[in-house]
Sequence to fold (941 residues):
Amino acid sequence: MSDQKRVIEYDDQTVRMFMIASIFWGIVGMLVGVIVAAQLNFHILNFDTSWLTFGRLRPLHTNAVIFAFVGNMMFAGVYHSTQRLVKARLGSDLLSKVHFWGWQLIIVSAAITLPLGYTRGKEYAELIWPINIAVALIWVVFGINFFLTLAKRNEKSLYVAIWFYIATIITVAMLYIVNHLSIPTGLLHSYPIFGGVQDALVQWWYGHNAVAFFLTTPILGIMYYYMPKAADRPVYSYRLSVVHFWSLVFIYIWAGPHHLLYTALPGWLQQLGMIFSLMLWAPSWGGMLNGLLTLRGAWDKLRTDPVLKFFAAGVTFYGMATFEGPLLSIRSVNALAHYTDWIIGHVHAGTLGWNGFMAAGMFYFLAPRLWKTKLYSVPMANMHFWLGLVGILLYVASMWVSGITQGLMLNNADEQGILAYPNFLETLQSIRPLMLTRVVGGGIYLAGFILMAYNIWKTVQSGEAVNGVCEVSAADEDAKKMGLIGAVTHPAFLYSAGLVVFSCIWLFADGFLELIGMGATIVTVMSCIVHFTRSGDSFAHWYDKLLENSMPFTVLVLISAATGGVVQIVPLVNIDKASVAEDKMQKVYTPLELAGRDIYVSEGCYNCHSQQIRPFVAEVKRYGDYSRLGESIYDHPYQWGSKRTGPDLARLGDKYPDAWHYDHMLDPRQTSPGSNMPNYPWLFEKFTDYGSLPSKINAQKMLGVPFPDWSPAEIDSAAKAQAKAIQKKLESQGKEVDADTEIVALIAYLQQLGKSIDLEHEVATN
Amino acid sequence: MSQNPNEEKIREHTFDGIQEFDKSLPNWWLFTLYATIVFSIAYWVYYQKAGIGLDQEEELKAAMAEIDENVARAKAEAGVLDDDTFAVMAKDQGIVSAGELIYTQNCSACHGANREGGIGLALNDAEWKHGSNPLAIKKIVDEGVATAGMPPWGPVLGDEKVNQVVAFLVSKQVK
Fold:
């Protein structure tokens, strides 16, 4: 058997299917993006229809482009390149099919449930719990299929692209499962097990690292395969690959709290989020350098080859976005940019520029090869490139200007604390031309993408599907295996682990322990340097050996990626809720308020309204006293928000009479001239779901929310009595409404916002 | 580990035809990495260990104290504001039209474009529930009426704009 040659046929059919699915969902997702961007300019485009309203469609846009467009693109790229990098057919044909069809089914069910208002109310984690389970299962199928492929590989060592794929599979599984832990209250509804500040921290640990490990690491792996292939040049630097891979995987996880700067999140976590974001700059740029410098000696090909054109621009956008990220996480910059369009622009530099262009480059590379033909039209691909580039620049530049303009206006208070722009709507009017430019930019980008779809469709028509093959000789089995013990007993691992442990002791402990930590950190660094200088070859050999053994490699990736989350989240999960409340504590909702809150979540109000007042003069003057940690401690899910298309609502309660809310929800322009908020007429017709309240309250009690021991009948009558009282009040103000409609429950919720219990009689400010 | 950066050392192993150089890390890149690490440690020590840096609540407290001081000084300098002052202001066309603009932007949604009332009370009749003299009106605008759902506008608009809108209302007052 030993000298025998075998021919392996790759499973490229799965790759083709994922690729076509990605292009299809890409068009859908981006089209929804253009629609929601247009809705922000012209409120009539919400059509007074619940399932076409911004708050429900925006999650559809984000989920579609992340999980459907990039997800399918990633699977195509991972499956195509991995088979070739390890010289083996995909692990299991059955699993490949289950993976493909399972994922498409998930996307379709998401596309149905999100517009209907079934949501968990957490950004990029909106899908309801049955779909969450399906996602986790299909992801496990993907993982098994991938590792099965590695198990039967005919290539001993793992190439850098595979490292990134392993990091993706392991870390996304960890993030997704933890952030989606929920208690169901029914078939379509659940509450996340974390609440308030804990939920915020877990959410952004997930949200930030969804960007890292769903939108970045797999695409870096794809870059490491397709870039040198297309350029026909060696990768610039192997050792840069090693250093930037491990630093990226370790550091990324810690940076999540930069989404929560100046909120009620404890200061030490905010500062960790900021400094780890700064330290992430160089590791990210390591990837950009290795991509761009691989093109050395091949720059002339950029003129003729659309594939390289897209890759070079995509990697450049990656570099730009990963410089902008650390910049935005500097606290004083964040004070200006947070909640504004600048963040939207930043995200789209990454998604349109990096993900979109890398996807396009990969598709133009794959189509002729998977269908054994020539690209239908190179000029059309070049046209796509320029349309895409102009689209991105219009989009990103307008969002920069918009974000900075609105941020400056909103934060502008003079030396007497007087707001220069007291009316929020004034700041909205000033960015309207920029919001319109964004629609144009996004539309041009989409036009380019559709051109690509046409180009690839014509290419597919002109060729026929063929599967790649390769010839392998049976592997010689004399190589000595390295197990987990071998991996973790080498100085390279011990120094790294020691460095992390000792520096954590130094940075987090006090007194004597702190000194020990500092001393041990310094000793570790020094001895590591000495050891490495003397016998660096042994480190290199250890790493070469590690690359031949996927199990210990995977475990080390998991350890690196899990460390940051453990250090940040565990201390916060174990806190006693009452003891951290500072000076204000949230009141437990009445049944009707809880029903109203679920309507608020279901309508996606958090997409445009925050509930978190930052401790700035301008915010305290505009919205009221800054938000305390205790004030949202019972909120499952938390609703702090991340964007203020409209004003903050944390202290909305009692600011306006019920009748104001009645008018405002029916037609926001009646009370707020010039507003771009949709009308919500269906709230005045749909009846409040009282029936589910007992099971909802029961679930919340299980999560530790101190609801009284109500019977279902008591819950029902309490809800109805409060609704009746609000209806009477509205009637006295000349507003006719049925007491059992959703608007009444929503008003009950809105009118209690910010009415927390003062634990100390003296309020800190104001 | 010294290596000539121009040396094109290539690793022997290839993956599906892909080769890898083993060039040393660019110095400026390494410098960036080390600089951010050093800065981060210093930042942490400044805020968490040495306790020199203010936390966000302390920052706000300091800023608010400064503002209170400025407001008190401005009030002292402005002298006493009484009903007669408003009577004079209400005849100043510049002040009244400035007040009208503020009214349109912030008050008309509840009190009506022509002060005919709506969610809020009418302001174009002779009935003034909380007192009709200028200082009483100013107090309502400044502090709001929590029970009626009227928000306090003093902290939002500031003294000057509140005075302007009061002057506007006084100028239109039906005696």
User: Anything to note?
Assistant: The domain at 77-171 of chain B is CATH 1.10.760.10 (Cytochrome Bc1 Complex; Chain D, domain 2). Chain B has two domains: 1-55, 77-171. DSSP finds eight helices and no strands in chain B. Helices of chain B lie at 27-49, 56-78, 83-89, 93-106, 108-111, 134-143, 154-157, 159-171.
